[in-house]
Amino acid sequence: MKYSNKILNLAESATIAISTLAQNLKAQGKDILSFSTGEPDFDTPEKIKQAAIKALGEGFTKYTAVAGILDLRRTIVEKLFKENSLKYDPSEILVSNGAKQSLFNIFQALINEGDEVIIPAPYWVTYPELVTYSGGKNIFINTDETTQFKITPQMLKNALSAKTKILVLTTPSNPTGMVYNKEEIKALYEVIKDTNIWVVSDEMYEKLVFDEEFCSVASINEDMLQRTITVNGLSKSVAMTGWRIGYLASKNKELVKLMNNLQSQCTSNINSITQKASIMALNGSVDDEIEKMRLAFKERRDLACNLIDSIPSLSVMKPQGAFYLFINLKSLEVYRNNSMAFAKDLLEDQGVAIVPGIAFGMEGYVRLSFACSVEQIEKGIERIKNFIAKIK
Ligand SMILES: Cc1ncc(COP(=O)(O)O)c(C=O)c1O
User: Can you list the residues of the chain whose pLDDT is less than 50?
Assistant: First the structure.
């Protein structure tokens, strides 16, 4: 009896692999500080929980439309218009079990065998796996600090081919926290304007931008709006990782219908209670709390950056958004080409869990999530300092 090649080629999420290792050490009684998961440490705001309790009390427990209830899709449409200057109709929205499923739907619906998908590296771990699973070919564009981990128009031009089907953009980025400004998006558009490639814009961390205004990729002009599929969700912005809600928006109603068909055969609608709660999360009722979380993340970012900067041999480019530091360890000769060894040794020696850069397609770096308390950040980075002092 044999398994499919497709499933055998699919890797477990690397971020999950490290946190599992950390959990095992914790279970053995070791004192572990985890900086590996991409999850806010805040609780979901109370008003959202109350909306869920109300929905449950009212018996809102049946199947709903596959794409999500109309009220929710209308609320998403209003949000995208008000906050992102994007004009959609509810029929252009598909609500899924997290942005992960939105991305799965997109790649499955667009990719034919051998189609190329351009992914700037370092990238969020899931994209290449989903592209490969869909039969596509990943074309990575490597970036580093010299372009602030962003792709330039020239880099994009070099990566384009007759087989290019999709360009993936993540702004703010996981793992680097870099944010594309309006001018940069416009410049990238100039490179693709005469092609017929799709753009997938993952804007999951949109609410967590610290230094400048956020610009939605699709908002720069009508053509970009038509070719872009905007992906977003509530996991990071409203601390709702466990509720499982993400959504996509596309002006191409036919594409949305096709993805709806796929979802109807896989998972149908997302949890009905989550849908009611998500309306409360998106309609402005918890904006004050979202802002409080953003300010807390900003404070933690500043603290974590200063502490890392004080460690000889490590450096970090200050992230403009999200809640990760992508730390450069290229001055450490033993680890510069083996970020996995760094992560394992640090975990075993100091009980600090971080994610190796190789998981994001880039050696010479590790990712530290600062979605945790100030005390943990101080304690954890002190341990990293001790570890570096030992190996020097
Ligand atoms: C860039 C990015 N996109 C999408 C997701 C998926 O989030 P979810 O499936 O919880 O909505 C994540 C989660 O880590 C992410 O970092």
Answer: none
Closest ligand 1 atom number to CA of residue 170: 1
Check residue 15 and give its pLDDT: 65
Q: For residue 206, how far is its CA from the centre of ligand 1 (angstroms)?
A: 12
What does DSSP say about strands 365-369 and 355-356: parallel, antiparallel, or unpaired? Answer: antiparallel
Residue 390 CA to ligand 1 center (angstroms) comes to 35
Helix locations, 193-286, DSSP H: 222-227, 253-266, 272-282
CA-nearest residue for atom 4, ligand 1, is 99
Q: Which structural domain, as residue segments, surrounds residue 65? A: 48-282
Question: Which residue's alpha carbon is nearest to atom 2 within ligand 1?
Answer: 204
Q: How many domains does the chain have?
A: 2
Give residues (CB < 6 A) around ligand 1.
Answer: 38, 98-100, 124, 170, 174, 202, 204, 233, 235, 241, 246
Residues 128 and 275 in one domain: yes
Clarify whether residues 268 and 339 are in a common domain: no
Q: What does the pLDDT look like over 216-256, one tens digit per residue?
A: 999 999 999 999 999 999 999 999 999 999 999 999 999 99
362 CA to middle of ligand 1, Å? 19
Same domain, 366 and 256: no
**pLDDT on residue 70:** 98
For 77-108, give the secondary structure using H, E and C: HHHHHHHHCCCCCHHHEEEECHHHHHHHHHHH
Q: What is the CATH number of the domain that holds 308?
A: 3.90.1150.10
For 357-389, the DSSP string reads GGGGT-TTEEEEE--S-HHHHHHHHHHHHHHHH
CATH code of the domain covering residue 256 = 3.40.640.10
Q: Could you report the per-residue pLDDT of 2-42, keeping only the tens digit for each?
A: 999 889 988 776 667 677 888 889 899 999 999 988 899 99
Residue nearest to atom 7 of ligand 1 (CA): 99
Say whether both 344 and 215 belong to one domain: no
Q: Tell whether 218 and 329 lie within a shared domain.
A: no
Write the pLDDT tens digit of every residue in 37-61.
Answer: 889 999 999 999 999 999 999 999 9
Please state the atom number of ligand 1 nearest to the C-alpha of residue 39: 14
- What distance in angstroms lies between residue 43's CA and the mean position of ligand 1's atoms? 18
Beta carbons within 8 Å of 223's beta carbon, 6+ residues apart: 189, 193
Ligand 1 atom closest to the Cα of residue 100 is 9
State the pLDDT at residue 22: 85
